[in-house]
Amino acid sequence: MESQISSLFISRMEKWIGVVGGVGPFAGIDLLNKIAAQTVADKDQDHLTVLNWSQPDQIVDRTEFLLGQVAQNPAIALAAQVKQLAKMGAGVVGIPCNTAHAPRIFNQIRAELAAASCDILLLHMIEEVGRFLHSNLPDVRKIGVLSTTGTYRAGVYADVLQPLGFTAVLPPLTLQTVKINPTIQFTVSKRAVSLPSRCRKICCWASTRSKTPGLKRSFWAAPNCRWPTMI
Question: Are strands 167-169 and 187-188 parallel, antiparallel or unpaired?
């Protein structure tokens, strides 16, 4: 059955957009919404073809891996899902999970794809953020980042932003571990939920920090929330 589906998709000439949509599911849905919202279209048929592969039960928690709480590298499952999207006809794939871009994970994804001779274009989300900031916000020098503790400890944003002339500004470790990470990964009855009100509160905290010396005119990006803000 899988081969029949793959053959059907590959027979099309168009190269489609692929999304690894289960890291987490709300992030995948949010990316789909952004793609549709930013597509110039007068009718349904003008929209882009997007393949969303959401299979979160196969991918261990990225932060738990980076913090040494689980041994299995989520890169293996992530790479498998990228390869599946490639078989289905995707020409470019994005993974809407900041923590998955930590080098210990993302470099392994690239290695898995190379070993499988899968030459699909895999976007590096944080590098794309750096390019956007460099091109569109040249006057901003300090970038505030609200993220999971895995992303926080891996220094993913600092590694990308510093060569471009930006400084990544992070919250204090206590606030990060007690407030921000639980907000992003909050669970109710073992079921991940979206918490817009909590994200708003965290962004309000970022707004107050912008009034401190050295943080005037910063760009605060809450990668796992939906309200990044210019201050």
Answer: unpaired
The two beta strands, 187-188 and 191-192, are: antiparallel
3-state secondary structure of 73: coil
Among 136, 205, 130, which residue's Cα sits nearest to residue 162? 130
User: At 35, which helix (H) or strand (E)?
Assistant: helix 25-37
Integer Cα distance of 15 and 12 in angstroms: 8
Tens-digit pLDDT profile for residues 159-183: 999 999 999 999 999 998 988 888 8
Q: Selecting from 3.30.230.70, 2.40.10.220, 3.40.50.300, 3.40.50.1860, what CATH number does the domain 126-230 have?
A: 3.40.50.1860
Strand 218-221 to 229-230 pairing: antiparallel
* Nearest Cα to Cα of residue 143 among 134, 195, 151: 134
CATH tag, 2-122: 3.40.50.1860
The string of pLDDT tens digits covering residues 92-131 is: 999 999 999 999 999 999 999 999 999 999 999 999 999 9
- Cis amide linkage into residue 24, ω under 30° from 0: yes
